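Hi everyone, sorry if this is the wrong subforum. Our group has a chain we'd like a structural model of before ordering constructs, and none of us has done structure prediction before. Sequence below.
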Amino acid sequence: MNGLPVEGPADDPWSKMMKTAMAGDEGVYRRLLEDIGRSVRAMARGAFARARVGDADIEDAVQETLLAIHLKRHTWDMNQKLGPWVNAIARHKIIDAMRRRGARRADPIEDYQDFLAAPAEEDPHDLSDAKKLIEALPPRQRDIVQSISLDGQSIAATASRLSMSEVAVRVALHRALKSLGAAWRRSMS
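Answer:
Right subforum, don't worry. Here is the predicted structure as tokens:
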């Protein structure tokens, strides 16, 4: 997986945008997420094509990546470039999506040791805001987000469990993630 471009030291627009967004500029944050989304989408298309698994789950991987970035943005070290941090999250979400499709890929971890830090002990309060937002979703959407995005279940398994078509689950997930984004923006105002 080639990954996202890593900016040079003098030209790091994503880091500048994230710092501005974290200072409260929602417009910049929206533009940053749109830009990251385009890059992650291209990265996912390449990974799915190389794994020959089709492209049905690309948009799911993009949305899950953006949600993870949003929920974990406070963990980004502002002294580091944003690109490698985003790249690591995107790689994991894309790999998770391919695993759900049954694809297997082995990449040597040595290629990523510079980007991966030892996991910090998880603070139980880190997800409290996200859990509040998720709890506000209608029950079916909440169940779908929990199943796919948090529990790592496949679209097919979730659809089967809920007696829904896979397309209906994808649509419901997309709508739920969109609702979560809107609810978060309202909570920030």
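For your construct planning: The first helix runs from residue 13 to 22. The radius of gyration is 17 Å.
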